[in-house]
Amino acid sequence: MYRQGDVLIVPVEEAAVPASAAALPPQQRDVRGRLVLALGEVTGHAHAVVGPGELRRETGPFGAAWLHLPEGGRVVHEEHAVIPLPRGWYRVVRQREYVPGAVRYVAD
After folding, report:
1. 107 closest CA partner among 95, 92, 90
2. Which superkingdom does the taxonomy of this entry point to (predicted)?
3. How many CA atoms lie less than 13 Å away from 98 in the CB half-sphere?
4. Are strands 65-69 and 54-57 parallel, antiparallel or unpaired?
């Protein structure tokens, strides 16, 4: 299990990835060629993955995200250390917080 700031990256067996995840369209890469896991609303910094692979997100405000890295990759961020990831499948979870009347993603 890997954590970078408010993003948790959990390795999962390929058999545990829901079939519905494979049917989701892959997320487009940003202008720097990265797969953005979370974008900081205040700073504009991003938790992103560099390397070959795909990121698929379920719809909805808190839909799950599934990351496939067939050759491994690296998680990068402007203010955090790089985290190397071995090849495989991952579930990406963003930290949430409760504020009176709502649940939201933690903003940095």
Report:
1. 95
2. Bacteria
3. 2
4. antiparallel
pLDDT digits (tens, 9 = 90+) for 37-92: 988 777 778 999 999 999 999 887 788 899 999 999 999 998 889 999 999 999 99
Per the CB < 8 A criterion, the answer to whether 77 and 45 are in contact is yes
DSSP category for residue 29: P
More confident residue, 24 or 103: 24
Letter for the amino acid at 62? Answer: F
pLDDT at 9: 96
Q: Quick one: how many helices (H) and strands (E) in the chain?
A: 1, 11
Q: Lay out the sheet containing 73-77: strands in order across.
A: 35-39, 46-50, 73-77, 80-85
